[in-house]
Amino acid sequence: MLPTAFIAQMRQMLGDQQLAQFLKCYDEPRTYGLRFNRLKMNSQLVEHSFLQQAWNLKQIPWCEDGYYYDYNQRPGKHPYHAAGLYYIQEPSAMTAAELLDPQPGETILDLAAAPGGKSTQIAAKMQGSGVLISNEIHPSRAKILSENIERMGIVNTIVTCAAPSELATRFPATFDRIMLDAPCSGEGMFRKDEGAIKEWSPESVQQCAARQWGIIQDAISMLKRGGMLAYSTCTFNRQENEEMIRQILDHYPNMMLIKEHRVWPHLEQGEGHYVALLQNGQPEEDEATSQLKTKEKQNKELSTVWDAYTAWAKEVIPHFHLPQGRPILFGEHLYFLPTTNDLSLTSKQLNKLKLPRAGLQLGEYRKNRFIPAHALAMAVKVCEASEAHCLVLGASQVTSYLHGETIAVDDKLTGWCIVAIAFSEDDAFPLGWGKASQGQLKNHLPKGLRQQQA
Ligand code: SAM
Question: How are beta strands 415-422 and 440-443 bridged, if at all?
């Protein structure tokens, strides 16, 4: 006999037509499910085993390892149960861990875990890697939870017996994922458990909601930034479900609702269940990881520019050698920082230091091209440049070059050239860079160094 106040509540939620359908399902038998333990079995093993037929196993649509079974076969009594090959679990209760989607290597908390359906499902998905803290507040139930964890052969789970508030003080912002299968008014279990009907009242719904709100706040405080919270109940009323989620969203602007899902016994093969998946904002890279990533990016950029310089230098100034030191990038500008065995300036030492000249400026890297700096021309000797990239000017051309003018050259001359002034028959000294193409040398003397025409 369902309580009148419960029927009134469901009428309000479903309307008359659906209510009739909903109430009719109370005359039908409940569903039975088991979930194979992926730590010991795989689905191929199940499909090829005699169990498939003997127990009339039928796949549960929302859980790969879950099957409906024929109750008369009593798999709970079979030695395979003692061997931990499967866990007897109400089919709709399998939805929450599926939605939470635990991953190997993560740090996960199951906050209200006994007798262990969701914990054993989570642990199977973690495949022995990472840590699952499986908590149950009541000691006698924590013992059953511990036995079930043991039976399933789980190696990476710590069972605790604590109030959520106690865990919250110890594990702030710790978990990648939290399962909160909250104690609730159990309306979805009425077909399975007559005791739940007797304990139900509108007041008990209020009390459950108040208790849930307390546990939720502790759970959220233990979620990492970007962490996932699966909140589930086996009840129908909105107060403990959708309204609880709205309350979370109102109080915690960071929390985002990712998905909500209900299993209705009159629409699907399973008892009543509700689950919501929430995320605690976007994941934050921890500082060390983000610093490492920045460093990696900087190193990659530096090596691209450095490679461009060395390839360019090999062709244009093949005999020029840099002193002991290391290349350093300031934006697009490549410098060569001199070092000794006693002094090798670090980025930290240089940080925010005014540096009018950070060693020798080698050049710039723009549009995938290396452009040599004037400072490099002044540091190179003519004999260090390739003959094909050196132009010693006559006296009148020197004046034109220093004025910043384009100079007519042999059209065999191409690319970057050291532009030099002759000193003696054998000696010449660089004035700057020019770039030759089709009989013209484009002047690359910096504008600030160009001499005014008389
Ligand atoms: N997740 C379990 C599973 O899949 O097997 C079922 C959990 S059951 C729905 C809710 C659990 O919450 C019960 O084991 C109950 O003892 C526990 N509980 C009751 N009051 C609690 C409280 N104030 N804080 C945390 N857990 C509580």
Answer: unpaired
Give the tens place of pLDDT for each residue, 138-165.
Answer: 999 999 999 999 999 989 999 999 999 9
Q: Is the CB of 57 under 6 A from ligand 1?
A: no
Inform me whether the pLDDT recorded for 62 exceeds 70. yes
116 is in an annotated binding site: yes
Average pLDDT, the chain: 92
198 lines ligand 1 (CB under 6 A): no
Specify the higher pLDDT residue, 422 or 425: 422
- The predicted pLDDT at position 452 comes to 87
CB neighbours of 350 closer than 8 A, spacing ≥ 6? Answer: 358
Ligand 1 pocket check: which of 63, 119, 120, 136 to mutate, most ligand atoms within 8 Å of Cβ? 136
Six-digit token pair at 259?
A: 């998905």
Q: Which residue has the least CA distance to atom 1 on ligand 1?
A: 113
Residue with CA at minimum distance from ligand 1 atom 14: 114
CB 245 within 8 A of CB 222: no
pTM above 0.70, yes or no: no
In tens, the pLDDT along 18-52 reads 999 999 999 998 999 999 999 998 777 777 778 88
115 is in an annotated binding site: yes
Q: Is the pLDDT of residue 341 over 90?
A: no
CA of 48 to the centre of ligand 1 (A): 36
Give the residue whose CA is nearest to atom 15 of ligand 1: 183
Answer yes or no: is 181 a known binding residue: yes
Q: Is residue 234 among the annotated active site residues? A: yes
Q: Atom 16 (ligand 1): residue with closest C-alpha?
A: 138
Q: Please give the distance, rounded to the nearest whole angstrom, from the Cα atom of residue 286 to the centre of ligand 1.
A: 32
105 annotated to bind ligand: no
Instruction: Assess whether the C-beta atom of 218 lies below 6 angstroms from ligand 1.
Output: no
